[in-house]
Specification:
The chain is built from six helices and six strands; from the N terminus they run ααβααββββαβα. With 148 residues, it is α+β, with helices and mostly antiparallel strands. Helix 1 (3-18) crosses helix 2 (25-37).
Length: 148
């Protein structure tokens, strides 16, 4: 086993252990795939990257389980493709989607804009007597590579 793979496995096990989550091979594999890709991954690509070790039904079960522990987030592109990524508790970001090739790029808003957005969410919560648990901002464009 390569040192890199061992490092990913160790990190994944630490993540699960720190939350008292049972460690299973499928959970480790999905987390490894997300760690290696360092960003959003289409659910269908998770299945491909597992090289036949994860069925689509297993992937969705694991996603739901890991979402319940706030390990990952799930969102959809304009064409309803499901995408997942590891949640970084120290960072909050949004995404730009290329409408042509599907490239997903992480972006961070300025502190000022994020503060304004948070204030608006609080106004919405008050006006509608709700509590927003999360928000997401997605931008859709044509990436530089596709504009050529």
């Amino acid at each position: 086993m390569s040192k890199e793979k061992l490092d990913y496995q160790t990190k994944c096990k630490e993540i699960l252990k720190s939350h008292n989550v049972p460690i299973t091979r499928p959970r480790l594999l999905l987390l490894e795939i997300l760690l290696k890709n360092k960003g959003p991954v289409k659910v269908e690509d998770v299945v491909k990257l597992s090289n036949g070790r994860l069925a689509i039904s297993s992937v969705y079960r694991i996603i739901n389980f890991l979402k319940s522990y706030n390990f990952i987030s799930e969102f959809q592109t304009l064409d309803n493709t499901k995408v997942i990524e590891l949640l970084d508790q120290n960072s909050h970001h949004h995404h730009i989607f290329c409408k042509s090739c599907g490239l997903i790029t992480d972006i961070e808003l300025s502190e000022q804009l994020e503060s304004l957005l948070q204030a608006e969410i609080q106004n919405i919560e008050f006006a509608n007597d709700i509590s927003v648990s999360a928000h997401s901002l997605e931008l859709f464009s044509i990436c530089t590579r596709c504009q050529i």
